[in-house]
Amino acid sequence: MKKVVLVGNGMVGHKFCELFSRHPKRADFSLLVFGEERRPAYDRVHLSEYFANRDADRLSLASTEWYADNGIALHCGESVTNIAHEKKCVTTASGQVHTYDYLVIATGSSAFVPPISGKEKKGVFVYRTIEDLDAIMDYAETIKSREGASATVIGGGLLGLEAAKATMDMGLKSHVVEFADRLMPRQLDERGAAVLKNTLTDLGLGIHCKKNTAQIGGNGSITHLEFTDETELKTDMLIISAGIRPRDELARQSGIDVGPRGGILADAQLRTSAPDVFVIGEAALYKGMIYGLVAPGYEMARVALGTIFADADAGTMPSTIDMSTKLKLIGTDVASFGQVFTNPEEARTIVFNDEVSRVYKRINISNDGKKLLGGILVGDASDYNMLHQIVQNNMAIPPQPEDLILGVRGGADAGAGVLDLPDTAVICSCENISKSQMTGLLDSGEAQSVKDLGTCCRAGTGCGGCKPMISDLVNSYLKSQGKVVRNLICEHFPYTRQELRDLIAVKNIRTYDEALDQIGSGNGCEACKPPLASLFATIYMETANPQAAIQDTNDRFLANIQRNGTYSVVPRVAGGEISPRHLIAIGQVAEKYDLYTKITGGQRIDLFGARLEELPFIWEELIAAGFESGHAYGKALRTVKSCVGSTWCRYGMSDAVTMAIELENRYKGLRSPHKLKGGVSGCIRECAEARGKDFGLIAVEGGYNLYVCGNGGARPKHAQLLAGPIDKETAVLYLDRMLVFYLRTAAPLVRTAAWLEGLEGGIDYLKSVVIDDVLGLNAEFELEMKGLVAAYKCEWKEAVTTPALRARFQTFVNTDEGDDTLEFVGLREQKMPKPWN
Amino acid sequence: MTTTTELYKTVDLAEVSTWYKAGKTTQFPVGAGATIKYEDKQIAVFYFPRQEKWYACQNLCPHKLENVLGRGLIGEQDGVPKVACPLHKKTFSLTTGENLNGDCPAVAVYPVKIEGDYVYVGFAD
User: Fold this and answer.
1) Homologous superfamily of domain range A637-790
2) What is the average per-residue pLDDT within A803-814?
3) A442 touches chain B (CB under 8 A)
4) Most Cβ neighbours (<10 Å): which of A254, A448, A825, B55?
């Protein structure tokens, strides 16, 4: 057995271990690892996330158990102090001597601290390890209470900007000082850096470029910086992030060749000047450069390991290393790829500079107009993956190269898609996975999703930047192979919602248990129970009561759970019309049970803060006053909103309120893949905002225009015209058909707008189904809706009048007490839950 | 009155010193959870009829410290029984208490036994 010793347990060192553990010939080798830090390797790329949660485990790349399980001997907190390469042995700080057959140096780099006087003062930090971050956070705590407490970062590169963002999040006024004339001078040109500077200044960051720090001022602790231009900047703490220096001291003192400005000399196999000694990662000087990115480091680990194991396909390092990067900065994206800086003799540039949205894009095109050489993206880096692939694979570019960053203006399909990439294109550069490797796994059926690919070949599991492209690849590739991309419900039911619906109806399956036995497997979960409950509701007109245990939590208790575990109660107020008598009744109930009341967006009244055990009592009183369930808790019809219409309004063209009440009462209790909302406006002024609803009617000359598939919310969408002008009866008929079609074919939790987007042929196809009956199913659709309308029952009435159903509203099984941990605080004459910490 | 997680510590079967009689089996919902009160603790008890298994864990969700887990949906993931919090759908294993879909702290789990028609939950104090 050959013995490999690895010095260094950073990201690249760990990658070496991981590849080692998976190598087919690993049994022929033993691996001994020394790490200087006290914990095993962690993710330094996402180091700044530690500021948010201070949880070192989240950054951890592997546990000590992982090393033990894989038979790799790991010594943390033990540095190697000498290499005797003639004798092939190393000595550690504690005096241990270990021989090796192969030695791999992965000592990484340390923060570079420029020789500024005063750097030993209290409050001056570097930004490199978890311990550095701990020290920064502890110190920030001590200065926070000072009037206008501020922090300054020296270095306007990626790490510096991340550190500045972190100090801003700690509540400090933050500054960035950069020696060059712009931010991120290695990645950005002047105009790109100016856009970034403006974005960051807007966020409240002080940016000071072209500043050379002469002295760190203060008596014991830092109080200010003095610059060579004789200006000063007051600051309570300082983080130095001025670049990295390779950790080459071990090699240097052991007589291994290093470069004139540092770094251990490496050849294309990562061999050093000493026999059987390799160097990988940021300590390596290859082609006169140090590479501070994780992808080249991982590539070095792969090549070195392959060379040591004498693999036939060990490969060599490429002669030019790709330094393309995409970074998520504070509130903006920055990316640079390929050849970033070019001169007019070799390339022409196309620049898009939007000072309003703060977006800057630059691409460099070869003088013959045929090749993309590289570029810069600031503010919007969504094109990065594709542009990077075009450069890496030397792909042809469109005749109007500006289309690459502006999109094709005028309809036609925009340039290259992921399927146009050559098979050899490396999509995941952290793990070095090519397009053909992934399509191979998709072909063999080993992988069917982005998640599967991550499990099979680790694609997308590194920095994650390639994930959108992998997702694109999975969807387009499977589609191109004629495979349907199916949204399966969960591990227990390998079907789509539509397939499940058909199976349940055809086999006359009546309960969730029967469904598991006949068409599912295992014992079910929270992902498949609610969709099946919804299907039972639409196929068999079942309320949420008979199978309460499979209902989503709000349906189970027929109320909406709020942040402290109490519930809100919403009685139906059809069309938003409510008499004074009913208003008073609601007011009395709210007063009696001390409920916070608010008018909802759907023109009804929400009563908050009801305890679980109070719900049936509250509903008994509401039902007695003439109310019924508003289904605000369900994926069901909520409200049909209306304007006051022609009965009162001097512009009104139709009685919108009556129409809304009729529609709401027709569809009340209807359970659907997602919530459903409607609106009716009495004229084109559209006061009911009907086009922001799943269905909306707007009165026009000659009847109503019927709009469908709109919504408000996070992705607002205007409903589209299905038909009009049509009369009331036709509108209801079309709506019946359209709603049943949606109920049958949409996936769980897909609202009508997204459903329509996914329908091939869009609104024109929907028209052909609903109006022209191309599927020949309209008679069936109408009958189904008729049955659903006739079967309506108020499920709250059912629940309060059936003792067995009422039992579920007891807070504790073993006592009638309520929950004494609930705490409320006052809020403008009413109350609210005590806020979360 | 407390909503701190210190109140809850997992009890192994071997450590049980008190079997608290929580109620009749018929008082508990089938295929869902219900909550009991034991001294100052709130404990969620779950019945999985298909596996004929009972589980118990703290009612307090460690995510936002609200007493709600007994009202969550239950199910299994790769054979592991779990509960999904009704507030933000954090899921917890009912055998180990660990958070299965995130990085919340684990919940404390308690042994349950059925004797005759009664459900007993095991405590170590």
Assistant:
1) Sulfite Reductase Hemoprotein, domain 1 (3.30.413.10)
2) 90
3) no
4) B55
3-state SS assignment for residue A801: helix
The nearest alpha carbon in chain B to A514 belongs to B50
Report the CATH number of the A325-416 domain: 3.30.390.30
| A553 contacts B73? CB cut-off 8 A | yes
- Which of A201, A194, A229, A199 lies closest to A215, judged by CA? A229
Record: contact A556-B51, CB cut-off 8 A: no
Q: What is the CATH number of domain A2-110+246-308?
A: 3.50.50.60
Quick check: A561 and B68 CB within 8 A? Answer: yes
Is the ipTM, as predicted for this complex, more than 0.90?
Answer: yes
In this complex, do A526 and B2 lie within 8 Å of one another by their Cβ atoms?
no
Longest Cα pair distance anywhere in chain A, in angstroms? 101
pLDDT digits (tens, 9 = 90+) for A717-748: 899 999 989 999 999 999 999 999 999 998 88
CATH H-level superfamily of A124-242 = FAD/NAD(P)-binding domain (3.50.50.60)
Which of the residue ranges A41-50, A472-481, A505-514, A586-595 has the most confident prediction, judged by mean pLDDT? A586-595
Q: Do B103 and A564 touch (CB under 8 A)?
A: no
Q: How confident is the model at residue B5 (pLDDT cuts 50, 70, 90)?
A: low
A804 touches chain B (CB under 8 A): no
Q: Answer whether A444 touches B (CB < 8 Å).
A: no
Distances (CA, A) of A368 to A36, A364, A373, B14: 52, 12, 12, 79
B43: tokens are 């404990």
pLDDT at A53: 76
Would A124-242 and A637-790 be classified into the same CATH topology? no
What residues of chain A lie within 8 A of the CB of B22, using their CB? Answer: 813-814
Cα four-point dihedral sign A786, A787, A789, A790 = positive
Domain of B25, CATH number, reads: 2.102.10.10
Q: What is the helix (H) or strand (E) element at residue A162, kind and residue range?
A: helix A158-169
Confidence check: pLDDT of A549 > 80: yes
pLDDT digits (tens, 9 = 90+) for B57-86: 999 999 888 999 999 999 998 889 999 999
Give how far A634 is from chain B: nearest CA, Å: 14
Are A327 and A333 in contact by the 8 Å Cβ rule? The answer is: yes
Q: Counting beta carbons within 10 angstroms of the beta carbon of residue A542, is it exposed (0 to 12), middle (13 to 18) or buried (19 or more)?
A: buried
Q: Does A518 touch chain B (CB under 8 A)?
A: no
Of the listed ranges A161-165, A797-801, B102-106, the one predicted with least confidence? B102-106
What percent of chain A stands above pLDDT 90? 64
Tally the domains of chain B.
1
Nearest CA in chain A to B27: A813
Nearest to B76 by CA among B58, B60, B97, B92: B92
Domain locations in chain A as residue ranges:
2-110+246-308, 124-242, 325-416, 426-480, 497-554, 637-790
- Check: CB of residue A666 under 8 Å from CB of residue A672: no
Which residues span the domain enclosing B87? 5-123
Tell me yes or no: is domain A426-480 CATH 1.10.10.1100: yes
What pTM value is reported for the model? Answer: 0.56
Please say whether the beta carbons of A543 and A798 come within 8 A: yes
Distance from C-alpha of A630 to C-alpha of A518, rounded to nearest angstrom: 34
